[in-house]
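Archive entry: two folds, one per protein. Generate the first.
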Amino acid sequence: MKHIISLSGGIGSYFTLKRVLEKQDKEDVIAVFCDTLQEDGDLYRFLNDIENKFDLEIIRLSIGKTPFELAYEDNFLYNSRIANCSKKLKSKPFNEWLKVNFKEDECILYLGIDWTETHRCEAIRKNYKPYQVEFPMCQNPLISKYEMLEELKNEGIEIPRLYKLGFSHNNCKGCCFKAGIGHFKLLLEKDRITYLEFENKEQLLRKKLNKDVSILKRKGKTFTLRQLRGLIENTPEQLSLFECSDFGGCGCFME
């Protein structure tokens, strides 16, 4: 029986791998990372640290395209409601690799969601049938993300850069189509260069489509990253407390 862990580059998947290794023989444990090619450089450092710590090689899958490249192909600006990047860049390549290499009775899958997301477990198990799926971080001892990050430091591994900047996820360089206004506000404040790159890509796709579309919505209307930046830089008081706390959330790999 093989034990296959989906490594996202996030802290939850790291501790998922750790818990599985504590119970299973290392030669039966396989870690898989699906690369969107739009990741923070420090995520790859984190993956290398994981390989060195546990003395294992992470299988890395990629279709060779970024989320925005997929949006260009689809002629559709992904947003908080519709985004095919997670499905095409993560779920699909993982599933194809899985079905080629293992039958359902030859492995168990492990995903890194924790006890705060148990409401997602049933749908995930249903989607991966007939494969068995487990969630070690939903089991005792229950620990918070803050506690995970503190323990990571104690283990001698540097906390990934995006966590240090205040992001709740270590994926897609902080540029998630499903993120909210608060998330992109944080990105502008902490990584202006990356924000401007994403803003420019949004403008280019708007021009290609010749439509008034945007990643974000505000008050039921299109709200581009350029508009958000202008608002923050010129009249930040116009953003409500609710908007500033709207970080959204990507269900990467889970749907």
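Generate the second and append.
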Amino acid sequence: MCGRYALFRWSPAFAALPGFPPDQQPHWSLAPGASVLLLRQVEDQLQLSSVRWGLTPAWLSDFTRTPAQARAETLAEQPMFRDAFRLRRGVLPANGFYEWRGTARKRPYWMTAEDSLMYFAAVWEAYPVEGHTYLSAAVVTRPAANQRRPLVLDQAGMTAWLDPHAPMETLQQLLTAPQPALRERPLATFVNDPKLDAPECLTPVN
């Protein structure tokens, strides 16, 4: 599954989007529970928000069960996700994500696309607490061999995904649309340390 990704490089145009935090730091290892950037459409304008990675619907009472991933195959039916899929869609910008392969000692791989920024389809929720509204999100995933990878949207797909008036047929097509070819690079095991959030995460294998 998509359990770790990175956002450490962005363009001036991206940093100029409304809501981009002035103190935004680069991150080489973002894990569920972290504060991440979500791009969504608010009143016909693209806007960035800092959200918790792990979906927290307003009705949720058990905060140990906040899913970081949502399966594309069941997104429209599962009670946890179906309203967000219909009404609250966004994307998580990333430079790439990590994938572990193997059995006894898993090897991490760094997965990227041709563009420097990738956009993962996501759904989001708002959770009100004592007069403040917190946002949370889950990344939409698809099966890939014996892994699950984030649903990567191209520019046209992202525009459709973020459109609050997009018909359900269009959204369903995006869930099964062909994915971009990914580049992969085997890494040393520094990134296996969940506490490490530094350039060393991308150290290539010797």
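Annotation attached to the second fold: The CA atoms of residues 5 and 97 lie 4 Å apart. DSSP finds four helices and twelve strands in the chain.
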